[in-house]
Amino acid sequence: MRTEDVLAAIATGLWRWDNASGTVTLDSEAARLLGLPAEPVVLPEVSVRSRFHPVDWNEINGIVNLAVAEGTLAEARLRIMDVDGRVLRTVRSRSKPLENRSADGTPDYELIGTIQEIAEPQPGTTAAHTPITGDWRRSREAFLLDAGRALAEARSTAEVLRVAASLSMPGFNPDGLAVFGVAGDRLSIIGHHGHDPGDEGPFTDMPLDTDYPAAEVVRTGRAIYLPTPEDYKRRFPAAWPLAQRFDRVSWAFLPLIVAGRTMGAWMAAFKHPASFSPDERSVLTTVARMLAQALQRAGVAESERELTTGLQRSMMPQLGPEIPGMRIAARYVPTGGGLQVGGDWYDMIPLPSGRFALVIGDVQGHDVRAAGLMGQLRIAVRAYASEGHRPDAVLSRASRFLAGLCSSHESDPYEGADVDADFQSPRFATCLYVECDPKTGMLEVARAGHPDPAIRMTDGTVMMRPTAGGLPLGIVPDTDYPTTRFTLEPGETMMLCTDGLIETGGHDLDTGWARLRTVLESDTHLPEGGQGAGQFEAPHLERLADLLVQAVHGPSSHHTTGPLADRREDDIAVVLLCREGEGCGCGTPLLHPARPARRTVLTVAQAEPERIAGARRQIRELLHDWADADQVDSAVLMVSEMVTNVLTHTDGDALLVAEAVGELGVRRLRIEVADSSDELPHKRHPGELSSSGRGVLLMEMLADAWGVDPRGEGKSIWFELHEQAKADAEPAL
Hints:
By secondary structure, the chain is α+β, with helices and mostly antiparallel strands.
């Protein structure tokens, strides 16, 4: 009996589909199944394609490409249509794709196979229906959309593996997964799911020439499907004892391919039989492609994070060695642009004189160029300081260095290179340089457009310490930076920070400083139990540094946003310096018989009348917990009058010294304003429209005591106020 007669008896036809010539050869049974006269025929491709349901036809190309990639048969279920668009029958096509080369060398395919009718249930019967384009396809598409979204959102290799382990495939769910990676000529397991710890041991560091399915997949780039244990044992007898102990019955090994390169393999193992139909293989192949791309993205992101973190760590120095009598803590938080590097920095520099310098700065921008300029500027400042230059000279040289560096980038770009215009634009930097004598606590501060330091006093009061300053570095090469001197008293803590710590979260300078002041004045960073010998230990200062960062960048910061838009792109740097002493700022305030004095010193130069406003603010901060607000207003008014008189009637600067001593509620405030003039103030009787001459009258009316003390050169005008709580309001009748 002829083969054609046997195939016709079982309703199976033969066909040959030649893509290159665009013709289809059918035997008589194949022609009958397609609704044509039952005789052998050669037809144009378009005539045969018109007989297929358009939805089913759209899947054929994908099935053929999958079969070519895996070297397997192409199997599809197709609905046959008549000329009126009605479904005549459903057939199954099984064919082998053969690659042919056309005359011009381009690849093409020829399909040789069979076509067989499938019995479908009639309308009204209760037989189970296996749809071709129905619910399974819709659930598969929904699964692939969910899987693609989840894998695209994974940001690390561990997250990708967790997503892969949680995928629930429609109709068949693997209970064991493993992802293999390639390093040179070795195969290793990146991650696995559904196995016990240690099960990966025999498969780790496996040579690629091993007779193991994953190794062969990596070598050939073709998927391997093993529907039964017998298939596994027959094809990979050497590896079968390793797989047998897991009690799985079906396995799929698929290559992980990105940009034409096989980067590993993915294994999906099943405890229930899986036939790996074309639809199932299509799902597995699609998931493998998405998994490969997700792993590549995660690997690149992890490499970039490791690179940027290592770069930033190499730029950020360690705060050491320890300084007798001083404690230092610092934090750096890169927040802008998704980078782990930025333009903020801090440094501690040992000086030839035995002192040390603290530096904090912020280069304009949050990009890679800002980080590069930061590294160069930090090295330059360290070099100038190590040569023994004074604070003002260090900043002047640093400004000249940055201006020259930016101008050289702008005028001499790489020849023929397409350089971003922003990369060539001039940049500036703010900086605060503090030279500290650890023996005396004397600080010499030079400031270049940077926020002023803040001081936490021994009783927990926090004040911004105004300092003289100049333009940011790099704007004008030859800029002078005046120096401010003051003493960090025993028990006080100084905070240096960049504007990112103040203005993050929709705050401006005023509201941001108020938020930080609340943290600095709180006792949440103090150890439980109050006093103790360990009150000066560094961990308390470290805790305070953590609380400052958490207050502006932690989860709770979203409940303390400011009046502006909540933006968090700016990097954060903060340095804390504590001088050990009773009532240390990084420890619990001590319970002294006499409360420690609260003191501040401020110089207002002739050329800086705008600092009178800073003097008024200093007095308000010094008296922030004073019992009578009217007395605070009186003190501010008298200070403003005294400092203004010095600038108006003398040629020298005004030195303001304010001190509050005593217990809360009964303190005594003494404020002195000294100048270099010998002329004593005298009482005047100004007219009703006079704009001056009332200073002495104000002192007599508002101060509890006042006077003038002559000095060797100049004089000191002082007044005192005695704190008193307001009398309770009389009860209403």
